[in-house]
Amino acid sequence: MTRNTLAAALALGLAATAHADEGMWMPTQLPDLAAQMKAAGFEGDPAGLADVTAPPLSAVVRAGGGTGSFVSANGLLLTNHHVAMGVIQYNSSPEDNIIDNGFVAKGRAEERPANPDFRVVVTTAFDKVTDQVLAAAKGKTGRAYHDAIEQASKQIVAQCEADGSVRCSVANMYYGTDFYRIAQVELQDVRLVYAPPRAIGNYGDEIDNFMWPRHTGDFTLLRAYVGPDGKPAPYSENNVPYQNPAFLHLSAQGPKEGDYAMLAGYPGVTYRHRTAAEFASQIDQVLPRRVALFQQMIDTIEAATAGDAAATQRYASQLQGLKNNRKRAAGELEGLLRSDAKTLRGADEAAMLAATPRTQRRSIDALFAQIAGGASVGERDLLLQQVSGATQLLRSALLLERLRIEAAKPDAQRETGYQARDLGMIEGTLKQVQRRFDPKVEKALLAHVLGRYQQLPDAQRVAEFDAAFGRTPAELSARLDALYAATGLGDEATRLGLLDKAKAGQALGDDALLAIAGPLVAAQLRLEHEAKTREGESLRLRPAYMQALFAWRNSQGRALYPDANRTLRISYGRVESITPRDAVTWSPVTTVAGILEKNTNAYPFDAPKPLLEAIAKGDWGNTADPALGTQTVNFLTNLDTTGGNSGSPVLNAKGELIGLNFDSNWESVSASWWFDPRYKRAVHVDMRYMRWLMDKVYPAHDLLAEMGVPAQ
Amino acid sequence: MTRNTLAAALALGLAATAHADEGMWMPTQLPDLAAQMKAAGFEGDPAGLADVTAPPLSAVVRAGGGTGSFVSANGLLLTNHHVAMGVIQYNSSPEDNIIDNGFVAKGRAEERPANPDFRVVVTTAFDKVTDQVLAAAKGKTGRAYHDAIEQASKQIVAQCEADGSVRCSVANMYYGTDFYRIAQVELQDVRLVYAPPRAIGNYGDEIDNFMWPRHTGDFTLLRAYVGPDGKPAPYSENNVPYQNPAFLHLSAQGPKEGDYAMLAGYPGVTYRHRTAAEFASQIDQVLPRRVALFQQMIDTIEAATAGDAAATQRYASQLQGLKNNRKRAAGELEGLLRSDAKTLRGADEAAMLAATPRTQRRSIDALFAQIAGGASVGERDLLLQQVSGATQLLRSALLLERLRIEAAKPDAQRETGYQARDLGMIEGTLKQVQRRFDPKVEKALLAHVLGRYQQLPDAQRVAEFDAAFGRTPAELSARLDALYAATGLGDEATRLGLLDKAKAGQALGDDALLAIAGPLVAAQLRLEHEAKTREGESLRLRPAYMQALFAWRNSQGRALYPDANRTLRISYGRVESITPRDAVTWSPVTTVAGILEKNTNAYPFDAPKPLLEAIAKGDWGNTADPALGTQTVNFLTNLDTTGGNSGSPVLNAKGELIGLNFDSNWESVSASWWFDPRYKRAVHVDMRYMRWLMDKVYPAHDLLAEMGVPAQ
C-alpha cells in the first residue's frame, strides 16, 4: 500500500527524535531520567519523585476504579466525576437528584457517605521481591513455572498481610523479569463533598467521549475519614478527616501551549514491548478478526430481532456493547495502520536481534515459537469465548456445571469467579437472563459463531464442541433447534433451583443444555490448562527478550519502562496541540465559548442555566487565562496514558496541580500498542475551570480556601 | 438568549474593523477603492481593472452555468470540472469512459466538441442606462411601475441586439436604483481539452462538499473556437481557435497564508442590503418555517413509502432534494444566529435611519409597510408553492391548464416557461411522472401541506383552494381520495393527449383534477399579479432606502457594492485560515497527504491509482510548496463569493492566476445574507496542483507550455 509506505517513511523520520515523551515510568526510574526531565522543563528534583510512599507521590492514590489525589491537609480528595459516579448515584434520589443538580456540602456535617464498597487505597510500601518469587520457579517449565510463581506470590501476600493492617499484592514488571510487593492501606469511610451537575461533569457524554476539543468539568471532590485513632474504619459519625502525609498544591496559574507537564496514576495495560510477531498478529489478524466478527454478530442480532419490539429491547444492551467493541477495535486498527506500527516495530526488533549475542537468542527463539503457537488458535479461542460470552441460556448451563465442579474444592482453591464471595454475582447472572434473552436470537448467534468455528481446520477443532454441535451447518441448526426446544433453563425458578444444587456440588439432572455442558466444560478446563501452560512458558522465556530490549534501548541512549500493569507510574511531557489531519489543527486549551457553541439545550449538550448565565456574564474572578482573556475548560498534553489513568493529577514544572486527567483523543486509541508522538494526547480538566465553577457558578468558597486557592 | 447576546458582543467588537474584505464590487467601482486595495497588498493599478471589456478583466467570461477565464492566446479556457461536467458527460460512453478515466487531448485534432448548447459568453459592452429605464416608470406605482421597467428593458435589449452580433440584457443594480445594459458575444464551438478523472475532479463528492479541508482537483480545460472569419460559429472542422483580447497568466508561485488575493466572477444572488425587517423575517420566520416544513415533508414521504420498495425508489430523488434543502436552510439559519445578524443589521439600520433626513423617510416608511405586507403571506405562499412544486399529478393538471390559457396569446407575450421554446420541457415534465409518482404518497403530501394551509388565519385564505379542498382535515382527506380515485391523469397517453389540446388552446375535458385546476390556476394568476404589484412597489420605493444606505456608508468611510445579480464582480482579500469552533483551526492550504488520509478506495474517496502512486513517489517537479516541502491541493481565502462564482479565477497581488474557485466552507452558507469575517471563506484549487497533475500524473506538457508554465 502506498499509504502505508508513506506513513512508514514519515514515522521513521520521526522515530529517531520522538521518543522523549513516551514512557509510563516507575517512580524508582525517575532519578535516572533527571537530565531528560530537566531538559523537558521540570524545575523540581526528579529524585524527590522516586518514592511512592513519600511526598509528593504519596498524595496520589487509587480511588474507586481510577486514580485520585489528596488536595488538602484534611483528606480532601480530587478525582473524576465519572470515577465518583457510583458515590454520586448512591446519594441521589428522584426527590434529591444530585446527579442532575450537582452537590455542594455546606460544611463537613453535610458531606455524604459513599457507597460502603467504595475504597481509597494509599500505598505504604513498594519493594522488589524478584528473587523470592523466581527462586521457586527455577528449573520448571510451562504450567509448573506458572503455578510456582502464583504460589510464591500468594505466600508473599499472606506474610505481608499477617498483621491485618494492610492489603498486599505482587506486581509483575517487564513480563516476568521483576516482581514487586505492594502494601496498601484501604480507607473505608469516604464522603461526597462537591460534584458538579451531570451536564457539566459529563457534558457531551458518549458523543464527545474521545473527541477533542472537549468542554467537560469531569471532576468531583471527596473526603476520606478515619477512626479517632487515625486507623481506617467503616463509616461512623465519630470518624475524623484523614490526614495524609502529603497533598498536592493547586497552581495559581494555568497551562499554555509548550508548558512542561507531568502526570501520576495507575495505567491499566499496554503492549508496547510485545514482539514484532505479536504486533503483526494484532494488526493483520486479531483486530480485523474482531472487527469482522463483531460486525457479523451485530448484523445477526439486528436481522433476528427485526420487527420484534420485545426482542429488540432485550438485545439493545448487548448490541450497544458489540458496537462499542467493534468501533474500538476498528479505531485501534486504523491507528496502528496510520502509524505503520508493524513495520516500525519489526525494524526495531530486527535491529535489536542483530545486536543480541547468539547465546541469548535461544530463549528468544523459543519465545517466538511459543507466541506462534498461541496465535494459531486465536480465531478458535475468540469464537469459543462467544459461545459463553454472548449467550444467556448456554452460558447459564456452562456456569452451573463449572460451579458444580469448583464447589467440590475448598473455597481458597477454587478458580476465581466461583468462590463463595462470587455466588451473589452468579445468582445475578442467572436472574438477568429473562431481560436479555430470546431463543431465536440466541440460536441465530450460535448458528453464526459455531458455523464459523465449523470452518476452522481440523487441527484447531475441539472434540467436545464437535460432538455437541455437529460438523455441518445442517447438523448445527438441527442440534440448536432440538436443544432449545428441550431445555428447561428458560425458566428462572429452574435455574435458581439448579444453582442451589451446583453450590452444593450435587448432580444437576438431565436438562438438554446441561447434558452438553458436562463435556463442554471439560473441554474448557482442558483449554484453560493449555493457556496457563503457554502463560508459564511466556513468563519463563520473555525475560530473555526483555533483557535484549534493555540492552538495545541502552545502546540507543533510551531507558525502558515496564508495560502498564495498574501500578503507579509517572509520565512527563508538555502541553501540546495536535494536527490530526491535513490542514486541521486543534489548540491545546478550550474555553467556555465552546460550551455555548455545542449547547443545544438537549442531552448531552444541555449545560445548566447557571453555567450559561455565568458565561454570558463573563465574570471570571481570578481564573481567566491572561492571554485568551476568557475562562478555559480543558487542555491537552502529550502525556503517556492509557485506561486506568482516569483521575490522575497533572502537575506543572513546579509540581503544582494544574489539571485532572479524564480522557484521550480518538487518534490515540491505538496507543496501548504504539506511542505515536504525532497523535498521542491526553485530555485534562483545567483546574482553573474547577476553581471558577466553585467560585462563581456553584460556590464553595470554604473548599477553595481549604485547597489554598481562595476566591477573589 | 445568552448565546446570541455573547455572539452579538463578539461580532459588534469585530464589526468596526472587519469590513475591509467584504464586497462584491462592480469593476467600475475599483478606481475608488484604489487606496484600500493597495493597502491590502495589490501591486497593480486598480484603475486597470475597471473596464470589463478590456484586459485583464475581459479574460473572465461566463462558461456554461459558471465562470471561466482564458489562459492562453489561443482560446484555452479554464473552468471547474463541475461546470464542464455536461461537456465531459456528452463525450463519455461506457466504451470510452472519460468521466472515470479523465481526458487528455493529444493535440488540437483530438479536442472533442462540447454538447451543442454549451456556451462561452464574452462581455463586449457594459453601460449605464438608468435614465432610459426609469423615464417610462416615472409617476407610476405598483404593477404599472413593474411593467414599465420590464417594457423599457425589453426595448433596450431589442435595440442592442438589432444587428444580430450580440446578446443583450439589462441588469438591475441596488434594487432598482441603477440599470446597466450588457452586451455579450456567445461562442458556440467549445471543445474539451483536458479533464482529470472524476475521482480527482470531484474527490469527496457530496461528503466533502462545503467541508474544508478539501482535496479536490475541480478543474477542466476547454478551448473556444470561431469561424475562419473570427466570428462565433457552430462547430465546424474548419473553425479556428478563438483569440480573446486578453488572457490570464499563471503564476510560477503559489499562495500562502496572509497573501493578497482577488477573484472575478458572476456571483448569483445575495441579500446583504435587505432591510432589518427582512433580516428578522428570514431568521425568525422564513428559515425556521422552511426547516420545519421540509422536515415534515421528509417524514411524510418516509412514512408513506415505508415497506414499499417501488414507492421508495420513485420518491428517492424528491426526498434527497428535500433533505438538501432542509440542510441548507438549517445551515443558513445556524450561521445567521451564530453571527447574530438580526441584532447587527437592526442596529446598523437604526443608526442609518437616525442619520437620514425626515424628508427621505416617507418613501422608506412606505417600503417598510410594503415589506411587512409581503411577509404576512409568506407562510401561505410557501405552502401553496408545494401544491404544484412537490406533486406530480396535480402539477400536471395545473401545468396543462396554465398552458391552455397562455397558448391563446402570441408567443412573445406568454409568461416565461410557457413559450414555444419551453414545450419540450413541459412534455418532459409530463413524461417523468411515472417514475416519480405514487398516489398514496402524493395524497399524504397534499394532506400535510394543505392541512397546514387550513390552519392559516382567514385573512390569508384563497377562496379557490378552500373550494377545491374543503376547510377541515376530514373534508380534505375525502376530497383527495375522490380526486385521485377519479382522475385519469395517471396514464401517460392521457397526459400527452391533453398536452396536444393545451398547446392548441383547446378545452381539456372533464377530468377530476382538471376540473379543480381551472379555478386553482385562476387563483394562482391573481396571486401572481399581487406579487408583481408588490415587486413594482419595491422597485419604486427601495432606491430611497439604498440612497440612505449610500449616505450612511459614506459617513462610515465605506463604499457600497450592489447585491449580487449574476453580473461580473470583483472581490479582494487574502489567503486566510479559519477557526470555525473553539480550539479548532484549519490551515488555508491543503496537501496531498490529505488525499491519502481520506482515501478508502471506495467512492467518493477513491483516488485513481496513478495519483496515489505519484504521491508515494513524491516527485513534485517545479510545483511543490517551498515551505511545506510537498504538493499542495486546495486553498482558502476570505474572498467574498456566493453561488455562481464557480470557476472564478483567483489572482495574486501581481494579477497572476494562482487559483480556481470551486466551493465554500459550510460556516459561510449564511453569507448570502450576512458577511461574517470570522467565518466567510472561499475554497480554491491551487493552480500548482493542476500543473503537477498535468506534469507528472496525467501529462499534458504541450498545454503547460501553451499556458506559459512549462514542465521542469
In short:
With 712 residues, the first copy, chain A, is of the alpha+beta class. Chain A has 26 helices and 20 strands. In chain A, strands 1, 2, 3, 4, 5, 6, 7, 8, 9, 10 and 11 form an 11-stranded antiparallel beta sheet that branches.
Keywords:
712 residues; Thrombin, subunit H; seven-stranded antiparallel beta sheet
Tell me about the largest β-sheet of chain A: 11 strands, antiparallel
Classify the beta-strand content of chain A into a percent band: 5-15%
Mean pLDDT of chain A: 94
Cα end-to-end separation of chain A: 59 Å
Task: Name the largest protein-protein interface in this structure.
Answer: A-B, 27 and 27 residues
- Based on secondary structure, the structural category of chain A is alpha+beta
Overall description:
Two copies of one chain form a homodimer. Residues 1-18 of chain A have low confidence and may be disordered. Chain A is α+β, with helices and mostly antiparallel strands and 712 residues long. The first copy, chain A, contains 26 helices and 20 strands. In chain A, helix 9 packs antiparallel against helix 11 and helix 9 packs antiparallel against helix 12 (341-354). Chain A starts with a helix and ends in a 6-residue tail after the last helix. Helix content of chain A is 45%, strand content 14%. The relative contact order of chain A is 0.17. Chain A has three domains: 19-47 and 256-264 and 267-271 and 561-706, Trypsin-like serine proteases (Thrombin, subunit H, Beta Barrel), CATH 2.40.10; 126-187; 276-542, no CATH class. Chain A binds chain B through residues 2-3, 5-6, 212-213, 215, 581-591, 593-594, 596-597, 599, 612-613, 615-616, and chain B through 2-3, 5-6, 212-213, 215, 581-591, 593-594, 596-597, 599, 612-613, 615-616. Strand 15 (584-586) of chain A pairs antiparallel with strand 15 (584-586) of chain B, so a sheet runs across the interface. Chains A, B: It comes from Stenotrophomonas ginsengisoli. Chains A, B: Belongs to the peptidase S46 family. Chains A, B: Residues 1-20 form the signal peptide. Chains A, B: Keywords: Aminopeptidase, Hydrolase, Protease, Serine protease, Signal. Chains A, B: GO terms for molecular function: dipeptidyl-peptidase activity; serine-type aminopeptidase activity.
